[in-house]
């Protein structure tokens, strides 16, 4: 990637901003938030461009009651809770898996859903509950794991799901911002699975210029350049895909069909945001025997107790981390209060580490 290209993009952005003056652009995905901070992108942009972080950190959006259920399950006899590492430090209503661990009860940290299945295979006398957290990106791997369990008759694996879908939450984001957003940088990973058409509704229904982008500096600057350029003259908002090296028109058909076989869309609770229709993936009837909510008779998660955390506003791009009164006082990476401070892709953690 040439420095020349980067310099040209920055120059062109400054040129167009002489006309645009002010614009708010949301980067939806936590990986973009991290890249923007890592490459110091905000520092080379004109002051009129305000970059806002969106709801694209899967750990951050899992509701507190999801963690509460995971802690309860971990304390049960003959249950092993398996999870990605980041989830271990996220607090539920009162505590986290990490803070609840005892000599005998602790979470098993795994790097993939298949690793959780392996634990179940090797511990047939216990039930392994995998915390299935993520977006459209991780859903295919979780669906593949359920299919493997079925094929290999491993019935002591369960999933506690908090898998979320992008389009419904983006509708809410746009509603909350009520025309204030000038453009959206769409998540390249989600588009890799779902295809560029998945985000067509953004310009078509909401008149917002949207760019599917990769994660290096030139990708992100390219997306900002296209959004700013679209504001000059009388242009119709469009969807642009500048991540064609990974994102095709229709996405990964195999991954999509696997998701469609195992999951169905349902309402889902988002941390600090509330219940959003059709925004979650849950197991289809046929695979219900793997569902921890069903097997352990857990209450459906449809509301959340109010918490002091401002994570909901952060995830909606309505506040920046520095505007939370707990930031860098009661909440820091060493002692996180809210989930946005835990994950390396969480906005508060990124702001803390890079002082973006
Ligand atoms: Fe939540 Fe902590 Fe961020 Fe405040 S600083 S919004 S408490 S994660």
Automatic annotation (TrEMBL):
Pfam families: HypD (PF01924). InterPro entries: Hyd_form_HypD, HypD_1, HypD_2_sf. Keywords: Iron, Metal-binding. NCBIfam families: hypD. Belongs to the HypD family. This is Hydrogenase formation protein HypD. It comes from Lutispora saccharofermentans. The gene is hypD.
């Amino acid at each position: 990637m040439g420095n020349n290209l980067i310099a040209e993009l920055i120059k062109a952005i400054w040129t167009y901003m002489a006309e645009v003056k002010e614009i708010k652009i949301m980067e939806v995905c936590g990986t973009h938030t991290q890249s923007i901070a890592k490459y110091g992108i905000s520092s080379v942009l004109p002051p009129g461009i305000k970059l806002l972080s969106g709801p694209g950190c899967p750990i951050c959006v899992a509701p507190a009651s999801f963690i509460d259920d995971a802690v309860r399950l971990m304390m049960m006899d003959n249950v092993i809770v398996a999870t990605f590492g980041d989830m271990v430090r996220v607090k539920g209503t009162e505590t986290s898996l990490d803070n609840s661990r005892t000599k005998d009860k602790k979470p098993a940290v795994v790097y993939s859903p298949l690793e959780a299945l392996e634990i179940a295979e090797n511990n047939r006398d216990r039930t392994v509950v995998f915390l299935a957290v993520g977006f459209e990106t991780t859903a295919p791997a979780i669906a593949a794991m359920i299919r493997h369990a079925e094929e290999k008759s491993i019935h002591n694996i369960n999933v506690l799901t908090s898998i979320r879908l992008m389009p419904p939450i983006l509708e809410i984001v746009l509603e909350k911002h009520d025309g204030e957003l000038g453009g959206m940088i769409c998540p390249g990973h989600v588009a890799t699975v779902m295809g560029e058409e998945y985000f067509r509704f953004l310009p078509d229904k909401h008149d917002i210029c949207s760019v599917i982008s990769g994660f290096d500096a030139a990708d992100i600057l390219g997306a900002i350049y296209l959004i700013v350029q679209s504001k000059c003259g009388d242009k119709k908002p469009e969807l642009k895909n500048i991540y064609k090296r990974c994102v095709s028109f229709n996405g990964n058909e195999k991954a999509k069909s696997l998701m469609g076989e195992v999951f169905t869309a349902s309402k889902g609770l988002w941390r600090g945001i509330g219940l959003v229709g059709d925004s979650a993936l849950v197991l289809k009837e046929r695979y219900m025997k793997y569902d921890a909510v069903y097997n352990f008779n857990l209450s459906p998660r449809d509301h959340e107790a109010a918490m002091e955390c401002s994570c909901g506003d952060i995830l909606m791009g309505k506040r920046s981390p520095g505007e939370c009164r707990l930031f860098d006082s009661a909440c820091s990476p060493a002692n996180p209060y809210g989930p946005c401070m835990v994950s390396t892709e969480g906005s508060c953690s990124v702001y803390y580490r890079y002082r973006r």
